[in-house]
Amino acid sequence: MIINLRDICAVAEQNNMAIASFNVPSFEALRAAIDVAEETDHPVILSHAEGHEPLAPLDSIGPVMVALAERSSAMLCVHLDHCEHLSYMRRALEIGFTGAMYDGSFEPYEVNLENSQRAAEMCSGFDCGIECELGSMGSREAGQRDEGGTAEESGAVYTDPDQAADFIASTGTDILACSFGTVHGIYKGEPHLNFKVLTDIRDRVKIPLVMHGGSGVSDEDYKKAIDSGIRKINYYTYGVKYAGEAACAEMEAKRSKSADAIVYWHDLTSAAYSRLVEDFDHVVKVFANGAKQLA
Ligand code: 13P
């Protein structure tokens, strides 16, 4: 069943948990995310980032995401991630997306505010919740996955709690992506999350908060972030890293038996799919934060 971003985050709020938002720019990832949602009976967000257009064009994968979500027994939201162009957002809304993020974090505050207002207005004409971002993660979702590093290295600017309160009042965004130490891509060393920034934001604003750069964080930090108001966790890089490693291991296993062994494409995609299922299953259970009754 397909539900909108506001409603899926309300489920998270009621249960003091976070919803996994998986970027799914391949059939294996899309199938793994839906299968895990159905098997665990946990709500999941299926995300398509504008920056993933070269991997999976919106016009091709978008209708498939919506059709599979509609016929699934699991509670699923089909969401546009890191959208920088309102014309692209309109296309996703017309396809039937039920969540959309406008990312103006790279713009000066006034421009971000104005474009976020326009995005929220556009979504209000559809059954679609809106996410906006304040502060900056530094490294961009569309960038190379090994650009990540640390928050300082990637030029992150933490979200200002007072500005967040004004921003939410002016834009009417349903949920807010905040910067408090996570980065997109691979972490160099341990991630250092600033929970004081997060709790200060939560004290000022009452809407669900979003963690971007959510893969590669320890289970303990996920739990602390959820207990501090994080309701949606965006997850991509480490899942596809593990899937890539599984595909390589499969190839090596075949080649170790015979140097000229044929390795079929489906051998690699099957290994990647299985590894994604294993990883997604682990994270949705951690993000559930002990919640039993999920609706
Ligand atoms: P990761 O790069 O940490 O997986 O973050 C993904 C993300 O935030 C997508 O919006």
TrEMBL record:
Q: Quick one: which residues bind Zn(2+) 1?
A: 82, 184, 212
User: Cofactor comment in the record?
Assistant: Binds 2 Zn(2+) ions per subunit. One is catalytic and the other provides a structural contribution.
What organism is the protein native to?
Olsenella uli (strain ATCC 49627 / DSM 7084 / CCUG 31166 / CIP 109912 / JCM 12494 / LMG 11480 / NCIMB 702895 / VPI D76D-27C) (Lactobacillus uli)
Cofactor requirements of the protein: Zn(2+)
Protein name, per record: Ketose-bisphosphate aldolase class-II
Tell me where on the tree of life, at the top rank, the source sits.
Answer: Bacteria
Active-site residues?
A: 81
Keyword Zinc: yes or no?
yes
Q: Which molecular function term from Gene Ontology is one that the record holds?
A: zinc ion binding
**Which keywords, in A-to-Z order, does the entry hold?**
Metal-binding, Zinc
Residues binding Zn(2+) 2 are: 103, 133
- Which sites bind dihydroxyacetone phosphate? 185, 213-215, 234-237
One BP annotation, GO = carbohydrate metabolic process
**What GO cellular component is one of the record's annotations?**
cytosol
